[in-house]
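Contributing new records

If you add data, match the layout below exactly. Sequence lines come first and carry their own label; structure lines follow with theirs. Keep one chain per record. Anything else will be rejected by the validation script.
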Amino acid sequence: MKTLVTGAAGFIGNELALRLTERGDEVTGIDNLNDYYDVSLKQARLARLKDHPNFSFKKLDIADRPAMQQLFAEQKFERVVNMAAQAGVRYSIENPQAYIDSNLVGFANILEGCRQSKVNHLVFASSSSVYGANTSLPFSEQDNVDHPVSLYAATKKAGELMAHSYASLYNLPCTGLRFFTVYGPWGRPDMAYFSFTKKILAGEPIQVFNEGRMKRDFTYIDDIVEGVIRIVDKQPKVDTQWSGEEANLSTSYAPYRVFNIGNNNTVELMDFIHTLEDCLAKKAKLNMLPMQKGDMKATYANVDALNNAVGFKPKTNIKKGLKKFTNWYTKYHTPRHSGLDTSFRA
């Protein structure tokens, strides 16, 4: 199966590309390798794939329309998995234009490439952030998502709508995946669990927003990737029972679906911090702060639709997942590792 994975140097995209190549797919990965966070980590992720004969990498920005047109015209992909995006809720407050360029313009280029080359399934990353001001837990795909509290969330909701229009107008099968707080080895340094670990080990205080009164549905990377792969292999079908009068918000009269992928479990932020302290065998210094703009007080995924569709729901508990992460983190940051050749040469 000839598959394009965008964001192949990113956290989820890289793990997904690795799993797809290992099962025998012919994978092309693209990434612009921007400096939103440490580029050397992105290069180290790509280095894990450099010996796979059925993986190739191109440094390419999805917002570059001519380059994307050329890529799709030359490669004739059967499937596309879009993991490329400008990530981060808080950064969207500081630099909103980056989200417009990548998450809207870039995604439009992907949709158009899929249409022109007749891709048989586009799977794309959305986010639990789309639930915004909704406080009805657990979040269901049937919930209204019209009140985002960050521009990041708004771009993800817009991406879902853009994909639906292509599914409707051009019969392009599209599946959107709303990820819930993904964590694990090779993760993003801007995520709280990553920065918490760094600061706890350094003896520095960690910033705890809303005085710690936050809840998150933390989802381990292996569970996320397993869910994505099962969805990639399941092309969405038209819902023949769909009605505009009593609309099912996760299906459509077009070949379009949207799914939550979360652990179906909510963890108090302070419990999360205590678990991380146990894994590191070191106490955290806490800097308790008020709620920050753009944040959600709680996330919690209903994953019944995912389980019904592909017979899978995430199951890794936070203690097991954080232990795997901290083991990787300490190994990755040893002097021995830092001297390794982790570069990827396309």
